[in-house]
Design a protein that fits this description.
The chain is an alpha/beta fold and 265 residues long. It has helices spanning 2-16, 22-35, 42-51, 129-141, 160-163, 165-173, 190-203, 212-228, 240-245, and strands at 83-84, 90-100, 103-112, 118-124, 153-156, 177-180, 254-255. The N and C termini lie far apart (50 Å).
Length: 265
């Protein structure tokens, strides 16, 4: 009878706050248990939760991929109020991590803000600048010859990889404008972060993968499917490649607001 009463109180709290830890649940119901004359310690309370499958699973440790505590120059956000009327006017960039049983690998992504096409990417063993630079050079290499690169904006967060001299030197050499989100404001780079979520949630990159080599193969396949097969509501159910190449008659209207956090799904 004591167990039934304890479980009733636990379910009451978990109904209101499903992810509340056992420690906090115990704290909330401790006085009621004492009033009912039920004596149970915290360890036995955890044992009870475990027997009935009521322990909260610990979420995997998140990996910070942005180090904005550095001395490199930062650039202002050029996007607020700017209309985007076609491909290769704004690129948005970010880094995300992928778990493998051999350790973390880091996926550097560059996406066209208008078409949502991934135009450059690199999976790298470390968070050093090299992965981002390889993704950037790949994106530049695939630009059509007729593109006026002086009209292209590269937008990122203020991570050290994007602010360092070697990276900005390539942008400036190619006459690409440099734009950065405000420090700590994820909404100002929401499109790139949304892309990370899609690749992890829909294409398996959020799981722990067997090896780094397999992670790279899965990533390549995921980006290919995302670019060529995944329809987007914001693209009127066209694919990023169709919009990027202009093979479908779709008018995408974009104007970057002060804090742009619209879905890019």
């Amino acid at each position: 009878m004591d167990e039934d009463r304890i479980l009733e109180l636990v379910h009451r709290e978990r109904h209101l706050q499903p992810q509340l830890s056992g420690k906090k649940v115990f704290h909330l119901i401790k006085e009621e248990l004492q009033d009912l004359g039920i004596k149970i310690g915290r360890d036995k309370f955890y044992d009870l939760l475990g027997r009935y499958g009521l322990l909260i699973k610990r979420k995997p440790r998140r990996v910070c991929t942005t180090n904005s505590e550095h001395a490199w120059p930062r650039f202002r956000n050029l996007l607020p109020g700017r209309p985007i009327e076609g491909p290769n006017q704004v690129w948005v960039c970010d880094i995300t991590y992928v778990r493998t049983f051999q350790g973390f690998v880091y996926l550097c992504l560059i996406m066209d803000a208008y078409s949502r096409k991934v135009v450059g990417w690199c999976m790298h063993d470390s968070l050093e600048m090299e992965g981002c630079l390889k993704a950037l050079k790949k994106a530049i290499k695939e630009l059509p010859d007729q593109i006026d690169m002086t009209q292209l904006i590269h937008h990122s967060d203020q991570g050290v990889q994007y602010c360092c001299k070697a990276y900005t030197k390539v942008l400036i050499k190619n006459k690409i404008k440099v734009s950065m989100a405000s420090k700590g404001n994820c909404y100002e780079n929401a499109q790139a972060e949304r892309l990370n979520g899609i690749l992890k949630q829909e294409y398996g990159l959020g799981q722990t993968i067997k090896s780094k080599a397999q992670a790279k193969r899965i990533c390549k396949q995921a980006i290919d499917l995302y670019n060529n097969r995944r329809p987007h509501w914001s693209l009127q159910l066209a694919t990023p490649v169709q919009v990027h190449q202009g093979t479908v008659d779709v008018k995408v209207r974009m104007c970057w607001s002060k804090v742009n956090h619209k879905s890019v799904a």
